[in-house]
Amino acid sequence: MRINKHFSIFVLLAATAYSLIACVPRDGGGDRTLMCKNRFDAADKDFKEGNYGRAKEPLEEILNICIGTGYMEQAQFLIAESYFNLEEWLEARGEYGSFINNFPSSPFIETAEYRKAVAAFNIEYDIDRDETNTTLAMRDFEKFQSNYPESPLMDSVNYYINLLIERRAERDYRTARLYHKLDHPQSTVIYMKEFLDLYPKSKRRPEALNLLIESYAELDQFETARYYLENYRLTVPDSIQKRIETVEATEAYIAKLEKKFLQRIEKEKKQKLIEKQEAKEEAEAQRDVDEEDEEDEY
Where is the Outer membrane lipoprotein BamD-like domain (predicted)? Predict the structure, then answer.
């Protein structure tokens, strides 16, 4: 009876020891690699089924515990892809950036750099306040252009760059329009001339031209205003002119301001003549007084 009892205790201890040994991870061993494979396969399955949120957690675990198993590169890329597909753009850009830094020789590197730029493009921004995100996205796309000049993605890259340029154009146009509303035509002219140089293909070009014409007219520079009006007439389609301002209406506006200007000049001339006459009469009167004083002295 005592022998059986001792034997049972021995068997129990042996089984416990075996279980503990089996649970201890062996660095670089097959058990850890198998565990990482199973986790990656499960995450990959979720990803392919469109369960991107559920795929992120096991992928992040792989990055923490599966160093040296061969699953790090794929896990890092799929995490970035998951954030991208979930439209969590700030996180996606960060994960693609980590992937690019950690695996520069990866076959996925071109895709990662492209999607990093697209993620930056889609990060929320306020066009009236800060263009940091626009600058960030432009830098990412320009880096892609430099690194992969022959990429089949180049047409798409150019498309996004043009959209970013239009963002900047819109911001500059709004700034100039604000100056115009605040009755600062000189500042408006400076902004709009630079706008037309920087963004000749902008959809805001017709409105910028119209704003420039009005500002020159308000500065009493009527010939320059008419010069740009002719440019407006020749380069802006009639359909857009009708939406913004017709050439005839703009010419009438210039003529109205010019008439007021000429009336003001004429009024100023008359006022100067009156002042000159008054000064002359005052001088003559003073001379008469001086002469009378001299006679009294004698």
Answer: 39-225
